[in-house]
Amino acid sequence: MPLPSAYCPNYYSIDDILATQERSPSKFLLNVPKMGKLNPSEGEIDLKAGTTLELPTWLVLEICTGRQPIVMPDLPKIYKESYREILKADACATFKTRFRQLMDLADNSISDPSVQQRLDTLERRLFRDSYNARTKLNAWLIESGATIEAANMVVNHKKRKRIDVEDLIN
Amino acid sequence: MDPDEVEYLGEKQFISIIPTFNSNTIHLISGGDVGPFRASIPVRVPLWMAINLKQQQKCKIQQPDWMEVEKLEKIKEDEKSSRTFTEMPSEHYMIEGKLILGCASDDIPRADEIRTIIKDIWDIRMSKIRSSVDTLVKNTGSYAGVDNLTIMEINSIRPILPHALDQIYRIKATRKQLRIQSQGTTTFLSNTRHSTSFNTAS
């Protein structure tokens, strides 16, 4: 059951293509004739050097390299100082921290659609896969006339009660 | 794997039954020969066959050695006090427990108690799995020992654990690649087309 995602930037990966739609602020280094409409607030025909615009990443990647770069990309907002603290400066660390919550969410099978909206695309896919697997396992555990189950007393005991999802996310 | 597939694997386990009929040896494609069956003489058969015969009322299932309240209580206590996983009496204890108690609870004394203890053991082990998976991911361990875990238990953390580890690997691999690329280029705006990193330092 391979995870159908690209493992490194991949030309054919839909996820990667969609990710390049994200905008990043970039500063123009040259005057660009006839492209004033990209910056409607100025109302001029030509785009002047020094203008800062948010351009999609796929465009920036093309025009920031080469012999004569047209724009100078800036760090996207989500990687600015203030956000770095949130990300702990590392995608890997963030993923690891959120992983426990993700696992708990998937295990405590609650059909609450709002939970999924707080996950990013990658996490949502992991969530969906593991949620399905967990549902199957639970179905297996309770199927066939005689169930193997914990005693009523144990189920009712406070410690064993289902964890509140709201607390997990916050 | 689906739990059903794991169950299928577990059904190859041999258990003891007391048949109520006579029959010659049965030659199975996998698992070898079974029988001959003589009424009220115990014989060892694969679990799936025992279940089938029981459903036709053609045998009594003898409980496996470990399926006794005292032994299971002991296992449960060991499991509780140990930090690591203890060895289970059977590679497929959950499957055997579920199938045998499901169709032959009349052959097993104190079936209800056994059912509860097995589930308790399962729950203890599941919570251990969850906390150790969490530790593994947080501490960037490069490997994890899965000694004494049964197939059903290992399967319970699929696909989330392998996929998560894949992702971590993927993020790290990209970072490594970027480092190699940036070593070859002095400035960000160099001619290399591959340089896709953003200008961070200057």
Automatic annotation (TrEMBL), chain A:
Keyword Nucleus annotated: yes
Example of a GO cellular component annotation carried by this entry: GINS complex
Superkingdom classification of source: Eukaryota
CDD domains for this protein: GINS_A_psf3, GINS_B_Psf3
Protein's UniProt keywords contain Nucleus: yes
GO aspect biological process, one term: mitotic DNA replication initiation
Domain DNA replication complex GINS protein PSF3 N-terminal: 12-59
Subcellular location: Nucleus
Family: Belongs to the GINS3/PSF3 family.
Biological role stated in the UniProt entry: The GINS complex plays an essential role in the initiation of DNA replication.
Protein name: DNA replication complex GINS protein PSF3
Lineage per the UniProt record: Eukaryota, Metazoa, Ecdysozoa, Arthropoda, Hexapoda
UniProtKB/TrEMBL annotation, chain B:
InterPro entries: GINS_A, GINS_bundle-like_dom_sf, GINS_Psf2, PSF2_N
GINS subunit domain boundaries: 66-163
Top-rank lineage group of the source organism: Eukaryota
Cellular compartments per GO CC: CMG complex; GINS complex
Domain DNA replication complex GINS protein PSF2 N-terminal: 2-62
Entry keywords, A to Z: DNA replication, Nucleus
Localization per Swiss-Prot or TrEMBL: Nucleus
GO biological process: one example: DNA replication
Subunit structure: Component of the GINS complex.
UniProt similarity note: Belongs to the GINS2/PSF2 family.
Protein name (Swiss-Prot/TrEMBL): DNA replication complex GINS protein PSF2
